[in-house]
Amino acid sequence: MATDAPLPSWVVLNSTVRIAPGAVENEPEWAIKCSHRQAYPYAWRGVKEASASMARDVTLLARLVEPPDLSSLYIRLPADELRRPRFPMPDSGNGDDDEIRDGDVSLSEGPLLRASVRAADEKLVILTSTLPDCDRASFYLIYNATKTSLSMIPLLPSYCSPSFTMRPLPMRRRSGGDGGDGDYSLAIMARTSVLDEQTRDPIDRDVLCLWPPPASAKPLPLSGRRGIEPWRVKQPHFPSQTPGSFVADTAFWADLAHGVLYCNCDDVLAGGYDVQFHYLGLPMECRLDDVDSCTGRGNPAEHRTMSYVGDSIKFVSIGDGLHPELKVWALLPATMEWKKLHELSMATLWGLEGFKNAGLPENLPIHPILSTQQDGVLYLVLPAEEKVEEDIVVAVEEEDVAVTEQRYLFGLDVCNKRTLSSRHLPDSGYLLGFDMFRCLDERCLCPHAAPSTDENGARPIPATRKRKLPSSPSPP
């Protein structure tokens, strides 16, 4: 069905990437243009062939709709790719060719491919994905909208595992503006065991892993393991006030219970091997330094978020307790201090006319998502019922695991204290905000998805929908 409605500039994206053997029927779809592809495969024979084939044949599709409806990304592969015999991944992580033999295959039915969105910003969309014939997540798929290119690189091996988060942090030189030349590095903080150069004893060390690596990055320090190519590393130096239990789980290396670790992007991309980090704690009333050992840390990300909005970093905290409140803070770059912008009690939220008229349940909202297009607007997930076990609210611990309980998504204008539209949520993975102008642009989207065979290898399904591309926002 043709329509002249423009695409939204900001959407709520389901992190679970759907697998589409053929065209996506009955949904407004866009093919994401890809003019250049490259793959950095593992050394194992079967996996090398499968990864090269996937990088060559994969098509990315997007379904982009106005919130509170959910937008989605799709991966489309030819039917024969999804029917490949499966190769198990070796556990050793040492990359020996003889770990996988041509006869070690599994013919179990159904595609094994799983993918999810990890990060989206600065003209980059980053997914993690398995291969159709492997039984473990093994690759990052990086789409570069500036160059309309797709890169496929291995996850870090088990002997150099991410210590904060698997979400890569896109880094660009500030002198490069918005990164119009397409040059960037993905950064992941990791922990590895290396040999002390003097005693030759193994010691644990933090490393900053980078891809594509700047010239000043080095191979993984001397160890008894193989390298981590195509990744290379730099040596981070953390300030003394960094909490020992620091666990970053957002793109800013932010621990939503404690504070933020940050560094200068130019130091990483153009400086030397050693990178100095700085630490800033959360507002005092939001720090969760003392946690009941019986309950553990819980999952702060369920009730908190942090994101760039305009020229500042915004932090949202939904507190529990006797008088739960939603608070929005801004980190001012000039002073590096937190300023409280908004405060809203749950009693006030539940009493809003729009909230009552929508028939939403009076429960504590979770998973706040900040809009980068509308100041003071955020979207929240509202469970129909709170799960309680021994008087403790049970948190969702894995953001990649689909949640099947009944939930709602609603918009909230916290500045004007009014609710926006709402909808019942289908089963979905973790939700994230997706800014069209920061992640993609009109050059990347084709209004007609390329024809493809359906899941049985039958005739192509033509794309017949026409929609206007979004116009870029006017400069201030």
Automatic annotation (TrEMBL):
Domain annotation DUF1618: ranges: 253-379
Region (Disordered): 451-476
Top-level taxon: Eukaryota
Protein name: DUF1618 domain-containing protein
Native source organism of the sequence: Oryza rufipogon (Brownbeard rice)
Lineage: Eukaryota, Viridiplantae, Streptophyta, Embryophyta, Tracheophyta
